[in-house]
Amino acid sequence: MLTAELAPLDVETLRQDFPILGRVVRGKPLVYLDNAATTQKPQQVIDAISRYYSETNSNVHRGVHYLSEQATLQYEGARRRVAKFLNAESAHEIIFTRGTTEAINLVAASFGRKFLREGDEVILTEMEHHSNIVPWQMACDASGATLRVVPINDEGELLMDQFRQMLNPRTKLVAAVHLSNALGTINPAAEIIELAHAAGARVLIDGAQAVSHLPVDVRALDADFYVFSGHKIFGPTGIGVLYGKTELLESMPPYQGGGDMIRSVSFQRTTYNDIPYKFEAGTPHIAGAIGLAAALDYVEGVGLERIAAWEHELLEYGTELLQNIPGLRLIGTARQKSSVLSFVLESAHPHDIGTIIDSQGVAIRTGHHCAEPVMHRFGVPATARASVAFYNTRQELEVLASAIHNVNQLFS
Fold it and tell me: Which fold has domain 46-300?
């Protein structure tokens, strides 16, 4: 519930900032409940991207002319904005990537090449997104390291006692999701990091889902690496962030070669640039970084604590509505949870659910959500997933519940 200290969100006013939320889809007002896949963009972000392309479009770092100087100022300003958002010690600890997936691949390839050896161990959790599984499988295949997996219980919570038992001197890295895209579970990131550090391991936290729902302080967490995507936090697609501690990033080899990541190049020898540029080969997504900075300004203007409080109300209300639908089973009922309502129906396959309720203008996600091990754990081929953002309303959840009732009636 909203506390006395937090002023409630004026959701209807905030919705006016998002042009797409006024759309009519299939003859019905759009009910957008696919926020875990991607969030919608406020006009402020759209305008920031448009201004860059219409007023200062130029390449960064290389030019001495006015447009290049302005573009560089905005791009590096965006880096400082991200550092402030995460409470990083320095903007040099912020590397721009194409998204969470590339950020994890960067760490897996670079950290893996430098530090993983045969006999070492990498620990993941059973609720990881494929993007935090496959790169580590590749790194283990290349190094001879072993992949180990922390199981989850029937509620979708990590079995922390087993995690403690798995940690040992061979553990070199732990990679864990902060907030599960398939279950909504909020993992105890600070405890995971503390335990791993006590065992001498480094930790990467996948924050793709968390950053738009929870305040994140990488120094308070003591995370070695923290990654997220712009499009999950009301920013553009194709831009993401890797935060890494300075000493780690400086010790790691480049992920890709090309322009801007070098100091000098000859056919005999290449010397590499300082961080973060050592990991940013080629022309970056300049407009994406600028749009991301605008998105972070917007989110912090609304207030992450206020967002979390309202979304908790939505989650509780949505849970109550869905639990009253005959034949519906919620997948993921963790005590610490946010934003995600995953479910299956006895009467219909998730793909049929999604298709039918789309006719009512309701957008949800169906499938394995790039988390096939989660589906295997719960014995289902797929789930239907409604995921909320702060611009969603109780009335929209009622439309969702009514549409699911219609599915039940149709298939029974």
Answer: Aspartate Aminotransferase; domain 2 (3.40.640)
